[in-house]
Input
Amino acid sequence: MWRKYFLWLGCLAALYFAIASWLSFACRPVIVAPAGGGERHELMRPFIPFNSSFAMTSVDPWFGDVADSAGEEGQSSPIILYENDKPLEHAHTQNHSDISKLGRGRYSHWKANYSVFVFSSSDNTDPRTNGKTYWAVKPPQPPDSGIAPDVPGEKHRLQRPFKPLADSAFAVAARDKWFSDVADVAGPYLPNSPVVIYEDGKPLGPAHSTPHSDIGAFGHGRFSHWGSGSASILVFSSSDNTDPQTNGRSYWAVKPPPPPDSGIAPDVPGEMHHLQRPFAPLGRSAFAVEARDEWFSDVADVAGQFDSSSPVVIFEDGKPLGPAHSTPHSDIGTLGRGRFSHWENGGTSVLVFSSSDNTDPETNGRSYWAVLPPPPDSGIAPAIPGEKHHLKRPFARFDQSAFAAITKDKWFSDAADVAGQFDSSSPVVIYEDGKPLGPAHSTPHGTIGSLGLGRFSHWKNGDTSVLVFSSSDNTDPETNGRSYWAAKPKQ
Output
């Protein structure tokens, strides 16, 4: 009895192992690998279902550095998923629900906290049991000619893979890690980036192509260097609308050195500042530009007020441009010939100008300067005997007063009132257009700044002697055009 039992048990065991071995072989995927070069890896099992029997996820431990990033547009992962030896279709499926609902080879190589493959089988069978093998392949990089632009300036090679620009077959985007400080700024549409993209040593163009959809739709070398905040990108198309990803050409971003500048400064009195390149083009004008004004915003013409009061003059190689106050600004861009405007809008002051002969101010090698001339002075001296000296502008504003000024006394310190001694012995008188100001010895000095009307003081603290004074009618002594003199009458 027991012998018969063990005999049956042995037969059943042998049958079990035979069936198990067959099932293991039958359910094991047939190892069919994709042909061609590149780095390849079989996707790691077990696969995890992704809301579907034909859509799965698999961890990617190899290619996380090139995965598409969550929230980024223009997906760029070069990884291709293969089913046996055939590539799956529909890469970069951004709406992952389409992978689980529609399948048919849709997939995504995607990274949030870590990198994964989300994919579907080509025929919507279950990748866990359909007997097929799935592979991730990073194709070898296409050959690059290595031709660098033979031009001066800072240059950097743009490395593949590039990001496709929407659905364009010939336009791509590449990150700019070097020139974000000069990129065109999103929103204001100021096309001031000097960066040029080169293809096999030849410049692409036109630059500053907006909207970017034109680069993707028309191509033929259009490009844009564009930034938002601290992030900057280079959007470009090939010269002949071949795919920059695979055409084997070498792409470079080059920031040219600033053009030579004659350095000729205006030989005129006043406060002057050298306008530094690069300038921002004014619209599409070939001879009109904008430069930021960091010095004279307090005297700029005010937008919307038909103001033409700015005294600032722009000089080109030592010669004044003009006419000034040119409005509308479109006249500067269409007519040029030295027209300019010093203009303020909402706290931002700019200098809009054209060259004298309608050459490009960016490249003509001339030197441009903004000059604030000294205010006029009547030159009227006091007609009195004694020692007298002309007080030269600019004066320093006293105590933020609109009508009181302070200037150093280089002549009469031995006679000045002495600080702290309630001294009112100085004989020095300040004259305005030949007429004496007063009362003299005004203390405290705060009354000169708050009340004015000719009050003044000749005062010394330590070795420093100063003249603190106000105009007779509380106009600004800096700009009222009157002549101020310090005189020590003859005894």
